[in-house]
Amino acid sequence: MNSVFQHCYEDLHELTIKRDSASECYQLVFLLFPEDTVYRTEDLLSRHSTKPGLWRNHGRVDNIIFFLNGEKTNPEPFDDHPEVSKSRFLFADPLMPILRTEKGTIQQQATAEQYAGKLDALYSDKLLSFNKITRPSSLSAITIAATIRQQLSGVTKSADIPDDLEFFSSGMDSIETLFLWRKLKSALNLLTFAADIYSCPSISRLSQFITKVISFQAAERRGDLQTVGTILDHYKGEIDNLASFIAVTSMASRTFSHIVLLTGSSGSVGSLF
Question: Taxonomically, which superkingdom (predicted)?
Answer without folding.
Answer: Eukaryota
